[in-house]
Write a structure and sequence with these properties.
alpha/beta; seven-stranded parallel β-sheet; six-stranded parallel β-sheet; 35% helix; binds adenosine-5'-diphosphate; binds magnesium ion
């Protein structure tokens, strides 16, 4: 029996009735297995003596004797207070709602005592304490994550019972070879030890065992997905040479510049992979401005040459439209038929467009996630490209695969290219994206000057405005970005760019009112426009067009301009309340400038209380260099998106990686891919080498893996 197969309900445990069962089920504990995998969040080492007199040095852990029973308050609130003493001091146990302790702790009795004590009216006391019989074995106690209606004692008691009743004969879920190599515990021992360890050393081993096992299965699933893809043999199509295809050739010839080395390498790798019999799956990482769009177009063109369709998906309408405009400009002259599919259902051309897509009269379709919505049918979707992949969750992948498989003309898994500037941390790249090949574009188009970044206090904003004025005078353009759309909504609350309202945004500048101020007071001689997510699609398009053409010189915006927007003549990015933005978002915003050959500037303006001069980071006081300051300093000191993402991770902690918290990339029980990166890499090597030698898991020693996958497959919720 595997642990994950213990699906018996909890009332198979002694003394568990309906009420306890429903309390547990409220906390998500519905079976023996889920009880046993509710791992402790901490362990209290009770082997070390801390006498009462040292109550302020930590949790008291001592042997104490009961010396008196007192009562205070009267009537319903009547409360028991038990006087105790150990060799060092006297103290009181305040027994709220526990009058029964009077009988359990008669005067003269000696008990083991643990608890947090405090001192009040010169008396050492505790309301949160535990008692045990002296000499009892468990000197390390588990501390479980609690939710309403659960207590430590209840969980400890039930867990102990479940271990005794069900875990005498647990099967190992890892091959013995792996257990030996990694010096892991047997599953039964690991699960007992994780709850009730006999020493801190053995606890460490138990944790390592369970962490390794979880990561091993994660990687087995990843490896299997990759095998599955390679089984999807495309037969007749496989023998294309992997040089440039005719459309790719013509496209490159028409470009006004040459491709960078990174772009060339990316397209070579894509071409090579497309010449193999199975669909490609690749992650392309290249910093903001490295020219990923062209790589996407080139990949799509190869598919068109092969008679298939390609879909390019972007996270915002603004970016999708920009891609569509570029596609029209660059691809139509080659005789390729691109189209922009908006999610906007009111758009009258949509029905016709969908017909054309199903009829194969569109070669490359560009849009937002609407590209994969229900009513969209492809004739032959052969390649899906996801731009700014970090903005999407992993579940998208299932939808894309389904679209390809349900194409009218032919069924199969479509190729997949994910592009990201915010690098996916290596550890995640090895997990949910662990079956993708990775291309890194590490160079930039020539002639780019590094962007000069300045930190400025709000009180110094005038200096920034003056600086930007000079840039405008010499013909450049500027973005001003704000954390809020408008100051107040109808309900009197400030409006955030994601459409939520909040009432603690007092004193923040917003795009709507600042657009007005920029136009009327600060730069009346230049044309200013406003852009944010609530503005109508058509108007957004007009605004962006005018900005691109230079008819609009100043764009007041929210973070809608964060991803992808490409206007090379813009040389200034001013971000107000920079402290409100994540580092990766700041890096993306900064990447909107520095796209031409001119020197570009980014100003990070942060709120300050006092009115002090100093645009220069050197002038910041120690305190200002505290957390917030340090965070923004990262932007001054680094221009490499990969480094910034890593620092972002440090500031935010694992599990908080950009975009990942919302999209539910991966929920693990005990492992943490960032913290346990070393184990992850080893587990991956083990899992992959097993799958390589024995893909169908037929060998005796791999029998347990096949059995686990068969009976209780893990990780289905992340599409693995
Ligand atoms: P990102 O990687 O951030 O998506 P883009 O694809 O938007 O970058 O490209 C940024 C800018 O660089 C665009 O204006 C694009 O036309 C230009 N560009 C791309 N490749 C090259 C190149 N090889 N030489 C010169 N400019 C290029
Ligand atoms: Mg881009």
């Amino acid at each position: 029996m595997f642990l994950r197969e213990l699906i018996q309900p909890l009332n198979t445990l002694r003394n568990v009735g309906d009420s306890v069962k429903s309390r547990l089920s409220d906390a998500g504990i519905t079976s023996i297995a889920s009880l046993l995998t509710r791992y402790p969040r901490n362990w209290e080492d009770r082997s070390r003596n801390v006498p009462l007199k040292d109550w302020n040095k930590g949790q008291v852990c001592t042997v104490a004797k009961v010396i008196a029973h007192n009562w205070f308050w009267f009537g319903a609130k009547k409360t028991l207070k038990i006087e105790i003493e150990d060799q060092s001091a006297r103290a009181a146990l305040v027994c709220f709602n526990r009058p029964f302790l009077k009988n359990q702790l008669p005067i003269g009795k000696e008990v083991n005592l643990w608890g947090r004590f405090y001192c009040k009216f010169n008396e050492i006391m505790s309301t949160s304490f535990e008692i045990g019989i002296p000499g009892s074995k468990n000197t390390i106690a588990p501390v479980y994550p609690l939710t309403k209606n659960l207590t430590q004692n209840l969980l400890r008691r039930l867990t102990q019972q479940a271990l005794d009743q069900y875990c005498t004969n647990l099967e190992d879920e890892l091959p013995q070879k792996v257990i030996l190599n990694e010096k892991l515990l047997k599953k039964a021992d690991a699960i007992k030890t994780i709850h009730f360890p006999s020493s801190m050393e053995i606890l460490e081993k138990a944790r390592n065992t369970l962490i390794y096992e979880e990561l091993f299965y994660l990687e087995i699933m990843v490896g299997r997905r990759s095998l599955e893809r390679k089984k999807d043999d495309r037969g007749e199509e496989q023998k294309h040479a992997c040089g440039l295809s005719p459309l790719q050739q013509r496209f490159i010839e028409r470009l006004p510049f040459t491709l960078t080395q990174g772009q060339v390498k990316a397209i070579e790798e894509i071409n090579e992979e497309m010449s193999r019999p199975w669909p490609l799956a690749r992650l392309i990482q290249g910093d903001v401005g490295s020219g990923k769009t062209l790589v996407a177009f080139l990949a799509a063109l190869r598919v068109v040459d092969q008679g298939g369709q390609a879909a390019i998906m972007a996270p915002t309408e603004l970016l999708a439209r920009q891609h569509a405009d570029n596609a029209a400009r660059l691809l139509e002259p080659l005789g390729v038929r691109p189209a922009y599919l908006t999610g906007n259902l009111k758009y009258s051309g949509r029905t016709q467009l969908l017909k054309n897509l199903a009829a194969g009269e569109i070669d490359i379709v560009l849009g937002t996630h609407a590209l994969f919505s229900k009513d969209v049918v492809y004739q032959n979707l052969n390649l899906a490209i996801i731009d700014e992949q970090h903005r999407f969750g992993v579940t998208q992948r299932q939808a894309i695969i389904a679209k390809g498989q349900n194409s009218l003309q032919k069924k199969g898994i479509p190729g997949l290219i994910m592009m990201s500037a915010t690098p996916i941390p290596r550890t995640l790249a090895l997990t949910v994206f662990g079956d993708l090949d990775v291309t890194v574009i590490s160079d930039m188009p020539p002639g780019r000057k590094p962007i000069k970044t300045h930190l400025s206090k709000e009180s110094n904003a005038q200096k920034v405005y003056n600086f930007v004025r000079k840039e405008l005078e010499s013909g450049r353009q500027a973005y001003f970005v704000y954390p809020l759309i408008g100051q107040t909504t109808l309900s009197g609350q400030a409006e955030l760019p994601d459409g939520n309202s909040t009432d603690d945004e007092e004193g923040l500048k917003d795009a709507v009112s600042m657009a007005d101020k920029l136009a009327k007071e600060i730069y009346p001689q230049y044309s200013t426009a406003l852009i944010h997510s609530k503005i109508d699609d058509e108007e957004k398009r007009k605004t962006m067009d005018a900005f691109r053409k230079g008819e609009i010189r100043i764009l007041a915006a929210t973070s809608v301009v964060e991803v992808g927007v490409d206007v090379p003549n813009a040389s200034c990015m001013v971000i107000h309340h920079a402290e409100r933005f994540g580092l990766s978002a700041l890096h993306q915003l900064r990447g909107r400038v520095g796209r031409g050959s001119d020197q570009s500037y980014c100003f990070l303006i942060y709120s300050d209380q006092e009115d002090q001069p100093g645009i220069n980071p050197e002038e910041l006081s120690e305190e200002e260099r505290s957390r917030e300051g340090k965070r923004l300093m990262v932007m001054l000191e680094n221009s490499d998106g990969f480094v910034i993402a890593e620092k972002d991770l440090l500031f935010r902690g694992p599990g908080q990686i950009a975009g990942i918290e919302q999209s539910g990339y991966l929920k693990l029980g005990i492992a943490d891919p960032v913290r346990d990166a070393d184990a992850l890499v080893r587990a991956r090597t083990d899992a992959f080498s097993i799958l390589e030698t024995d893909p169908d898991l037929l060998q005796d020693e791999h029998h347990c893996i096949a059995a686990v996958l068969d009976r209780a497959p893990p990780f289905s919720e992340v599409g693995l």
